[in-house]
Amino acid sequence: MASYDVIVIGSGPGGYVSAIRCAQLGLKTACVEGRDTLGGTCLNVGCIPSKALLHASHQLHEAQHNFAKMGLIADEPKVDWARMQGYKTEVIDGNTKGIEFLFKKNKIEWLKGWGSIPTAGQVKIGDDIHKAKYIIIASGSKPSSLPGIEIDEKTVVTSTGALALDKIPSKMVVIGAGVIGLELGSVYARLGAEVEVIEFLDDITPGMDGEVQKTFLRILKKQGLKFTMGAAVQSVVVKKGKATVSYIKRKKDTTHEVDADVVLVATGRRPNVDGLGLDALGVTLTARGQIQTDAHYATSVPGVYAIGDAITGPMLAHKAEDEGMAVAEILAGQAGHVNYDVIPGVIYTHPEVATVGKTEEQLKEAGRAYKTGKFSFMGNGRAKANFASDGFVKILADAETDRILGAHIIGPMAGDLIHEVCVAMEFGAAAEDLARTCHAHPTYSEAVREAALDCGNGAIHS
Ligand code: NAI
Asked: What confidence tens digit (pLDDT) does each residue in 140-156 have?
């Protein structure tokens, strides 16, 4: 029986980051992982492999649409799907091995197998019991399907199956116009599939700034994705490897059917808490099955903590990472803290979509007086040169104090640009602070500055 200060259950971005920070702060740390490789969903079947396919398929799009415009004459590019999958696997391997290296470097023990918690202070893996003063549950989430839909990961797939299809489908139906549906739908649309997205609500990407939603939808349609909105999927029937999706148009209450080679079910994820023994242990869950924690990530059982997708809040790798670091600091006697008001969200389509802080809709609902600074990438020289002028930056600032309340970007490198605003918000900056910061020319980031200028006396290039 081995004994540790901390055992982290799960080695995804929440778990492995937490383990590293615990070790850095002098705690004897182990991390339990049952997969053959470290890194959890994100590195193995989520963020990282999807970004590899998004990158490869975007390069194809560039070759098909923009090479000739720049005087680059090449043969018609072809997709070698097996090689693209091989590239994806190499990217995964490089990343998961990187975590293994970091574990060794920080003297973190990888306890291989699936862990459960028979009692506070103990983690059971197979027949072995390991002791720890503190246990951190970082068990992540898993896809949640719909009733009437059976996932086989071949014809009816979650994001996991969608990343490893045998071949590029001729027709793909995506259920759910959220982050996963739009990222992976984009990949297959660019690779030549006919992609139809069926969404329950009237807008894509629920909760996002309305103006961004509209622009995003227009751009995706221009890229060839088809959308059926306000439609509730009822069932998917598979016969001889082909699927028929039936849905009800909510306003008219009419039933429709559509056939597909592959159906991607992207209707959300749920906490992965099965098998941990939480019931018997007496850990309180929320009505939505998340582990209930206090502000210090402590569960209802002393000595047992939880972070990431398994608890409340947005299911985002970077939110889990931040909680992982914060809980490590708390356990080491420091003041760990996560600022939930400044957690960016990014959709890695092309163009990218990035958002932080409040949306206009939220500010209106709260009755808050605000001003809007907006700048189109049409006025950005770098974006024009790179055929990337679709989209805009929008900054929302307090009408009186000018303090930045939110930012919403759709455009090139939006996922990187947003962090300038995140840092500004962490420092409680005013839009004028961003506007008065010299930005190198020519960069995409000038569009952020221009939006900030537009909160004051006006942007220069619009
Ligand atoms: P989501 O919650 O983002 O979107 C699910 C969509 O499915 C919603 O628009 C919902 O209205 C729709 N839907 C639900 N039931 C339906 C029905 N019966 N018929 C038609 N549409 C229906 O969930 P998603 O895309 O599966 O992502 C899961 C989680 O993973 C999210 O929390 C997301 O933030 C996270 N994620 C984040 C990524 C990123 O940060 N880039 C990438 C991938 C996932």
From this structure: 999 998 998 999 999 99
